[in-house]
Design brief:
Layout (H helix, E strand, L loop, with lengths): L3 E7 L14 E4 L5 E3 L8 H13 L3 E7 L12 H10 L4 E4 L9 H12 L4 E5 L16 E5 L7 H7 L3 E3 L4 E3 L4 E3 L4 H18 L5 H8 L18 E4 L13 E2 L4 H4 L5 E4 L2 H7 L5 E4 L14 E3 H9 L12 E6 L5 H14 L4 E5 L10 E2 L10 H14 L4 E6 L14 E6 L4 E7 L2 E8 L3 H16 L6
Parallel strand pairs: 1-4, 1-5, 2-4, 5-6, 6-7, 7-8, 11-12, 11-13, 13-14, 14-15, 16-19, 16-20, 17-18, 17-19
Antiparallel strand pairs: 2-3, 9-10, 20-21, 21-22
Helix pairs in contact: 1-5, 2-3, 10-12
Length: about 475
Amino acid sequence: MKKIEIAVIDSGVEKDLLRNSIKNDIVIDKDGLSYANSNSSTYSWHGTNCALIIEKYCKYVDISSVCILGGKGTGMVSKLEPALEVCLQNDIRVVNLSFGSTHYNDKAEIRNVINHYANKNMIIVAASSNDGYKTFPASFTNVIGVVAGDTYCTESDLQVHKGIDFTAFSEHNIKNKSNFVRLGRNNSYAAPFVTAFIGNLMQKKNCRNICEVREHLFCEGYRPENFICYPDWIEFAWVSTECRRSIVPFYFKERKGNYKTNLSHIDTLVLKNRKELAKFIYSGKHIVYLGEGRVKQSVHGIHFWSKESRIMQIKKSAVRPVDINIPIIICKIDKWQDEMLWLFKLRKYFGDDGYNIYPISETIESVLYDMEYIPKQLLRKKNMDQIHNFLYWQTYFNQSDAVLFMLKSQDYIKIGNNDVDLLIDITGKEEITVKIYFDKQEKISYRMVEKETNVVYKVYLKIVEFLTEGTDE
């Protein structure tokens, strides 16, 4: 049987402990340059253990080591891209990553790298962080995310809230230089078990991409429409002209013009109506459907997302143990304001000052700008408990410092048992009027004849002023 090639991107591998020789032993330096490892001391037990687990459960395997982590298990995000490029150049399709980041500032960079290589049909398996928070890249749709568990299975709560696909056994018996050692419960050692499983699968099945691998891995009775994801997988897309647009760019690269001339250059179609959907559903491209009406996905081998995907995710959210205990900011804007610009700029200003904001919109196109989306139809009193549950877990696992909800409707929303902490009313075109309500009372009202971007920054400063009043920063 032909051997499957698997790369362990980690802290290096002690080649003398493996059953077979390492096919490639590569180190990525601080400048992102790759070179053959000639120093046997440049490894740690973490990477070696991952390789031993893969070799234990996948008999016919050639393992390559790509070292990007130091002995303490830390490394630079910038090393991930050259590490995956080494795998691509060596025709390695299956990759194990037993590490990740939980910091919001790393999300975009890691996502862009992952999507580039996943769209070249690389199968990436990643461990979630042991601290329990949402981890990048394990939480991404283009990655098989894994946590440690007693059995190999799927758990709805983990998928809904953290983007994790599987729990897997991690307490393996492996042989080191002198004897057998039993590894402890650790997400890092659960991921290579799934990687080995995928290696065995790839030897039997001709899986073209991660979608087909995921379908084979899920339990019997799996249906594509039951897989909960978010449209974070896009690298290049053709976007319907019917979609609302902002002056802010999409989080991905857009190919404009006739879809036929772009079909070979994109991975995703962003569609707005049923006619487009019927036309493109079997195009072989991933689909983000932003139109109305319930849609049942019946096409295998692609990512598919629609409003129904988010509704299902919200409805499947676990019951929250307590109410949300971070600030809730609601901005009500009129038709003259660029909603995505406000969300984009406010998130950036908060992020620059070290605050991790959870930005939400009721406009479905917000998903194209890497914002969170809650359908307007769910913003009713009868659904509020489900919304509270969803927001509690999302902000908990994302380690959010505040919720920022942008509304174009005039509906007033209550989150949890208390009113919102800050309500901002923004109206006007040439002259923008801003009213800020704190503790249910209007605290400030002013009019500005300025560029919208300047207004956003001034509003940001007022938000921080009100929310930090009486506290030591």
